[in-house]
Structures are given as C-alpha cells and as structure tokens.
Amino acid sequence: MLDRHLQLYPVTSATEPVVPLLLSPGSTRFSFEMPLPAGIPETISCPQITVDYNITVCMEYKKTTQSAGVLHEEIKKRVILARLPDNGMLTGENYPITIDSHKHFSNYCQYRITVDKKSAALGTTLPVKIEIAPTVKDLRIKQIFLQLVEKRTVSPEEGEEKTSQSVHFLYPTKGSSIALPTRPLYTNWTGNFLYQIPDEKTISHSTQSYSQFHIHHILLVSLLVTFPETHGQHYGRHVTRTISFQTQFDLLDSHLSSEREYTKLPSYNCPVSIEEIEKLYQHGLGMDNPPSYEESLPTIL
Hints:
By secondary structure, the chain is mainly beta.
C-alpha cells in the first residue's frame, strides 16, 4: 500500500564527489522528514482489517577507511499513523465541540441530552449531561444507559462487501456511579455522569471511508421512565417508556488520549539555513526567529 525510500547520505542530488562521512565516537543523529501521501489509511488492527506501518533504517559502513569489506546494519521499528479529528470537529479556540440533542418534547416530559465532545480517544472518559422536565404526574427515571454501536464494512477487491455490527455498553468510570432520583420528579432534574470508553482490546477506533474498508460508530443514549396512566382501561397502572437519542461519534486512536497534544499548535522553528538568512537580509527581509508557542500565549491577569 505504501513504500517510500529516503537516502540520508550521500545526498543523491549532490553534484560534488562524495566524501566519506567519518563518525566520531559516541552518538550521531540524522534529522529527516519523509512526506506521506494523502489518503493512506491510519494504523488499525481488528478482526478483518489490519493496517501496519514500519520504518526500516539501514546503514552500510566500514570500520576504517582501509577496510575492504562493507558492513550492513538494519533495524525496523513500528510506526503508529494516527488520524486527528475530522475537519470541523475542533473550533477556532482549539476545543472539541459538543453534541447537543437540543430540547425534545414527548407526551410525558421534555428532555435534553448533551455529550461533552464529538470525538474521544479509546480508553478516555466521556461526560454526559441529561436534563428532564416532567409533563405528567409521578414521572420516575428508572434507568439510564449508553451504548457504542460499531459498524465495520469491508470491501475486498474480489468478493462481496461485508458489513458487521457490534454493540458495546459504556459504564461509569471507576469511583463514580449513576445516582438517579428515588422519588417521582415534580420539578426539572439534571444529571451529570462520567462514562468510561473501552480501550482497543474491546473496540476499534473509527476510520475514514476508504476503498477497502470503513469503520464508524454511533453513540446511543437511552432512558427508561415510568409513570401512571391517566386515562383508558389501564388508568393508574404504571407504564414504562424509552427515550432514545443517537448520534455519530468519532473514536480516535488511543495514542491521541491527551487532547492537549493534538490541539496544541506546533512549536516555531527556524527552517532556513545561515546562507538563506543572509540572502533575506540582503533583500531587506531580515527578521529574528518568531517566538515559541508558549511565548506567544497571551498573559491573563
């Protein structure tokens, strides 16, 4: 799917004769950048779908300039290619936007469900806020539960497209619980809950839609409420109703568990050489290096 080769020494574009590179005792670092083509899938490993990337570093060398034989060393390391949240999922202030069901009306209550973010990494937490305003007498909240529905579509080059689905319940984080009112609701009620998102051992992260596969998730919030019938032959008998709200949810790779890391602007570095800086000064474009990210942050008194 992807195969790129980058030669650090000797530089292939060099016009002068290649001079042997002599390494001093100790550690020698080579900085490099390798552009990745657009549209390649992120790293993922789950039933039916596996995408892995590795970087291999090779070095051919002689122990002394007089040595006749060339030695070869090679090392391979796995590289995680993680996808950031989709466009539009971060606001201009670099904060994830929320999911808001807005106010809904039913025959027995008004309700609003707010999820603190539209995307979250595997293994992190998910804050949820539920607001209920009863419109019938003796309305009780019986149960609240959250589910993540994973839909996995695989389109092999040969054969039919296959779609599978799995459902995963979300539970409160360790040390927290769901405290529901024990009595009927006579006034507006608000509950704030913190749920634990499973890790990669249980569920896969979401992906973009590629030609060979696509994984996406739906967050389902369900509330069971009970209240007495106010008319008909079942007058006074308690009935149970379900309130459901579902929305698309972007599950990110667990390596993006720290929101600060992927919402933070990159540090400024001076990408030009000394010769290029001198040319800028000759043309009246000389300037000092821009401030670092931390220095550019405004001070709030």
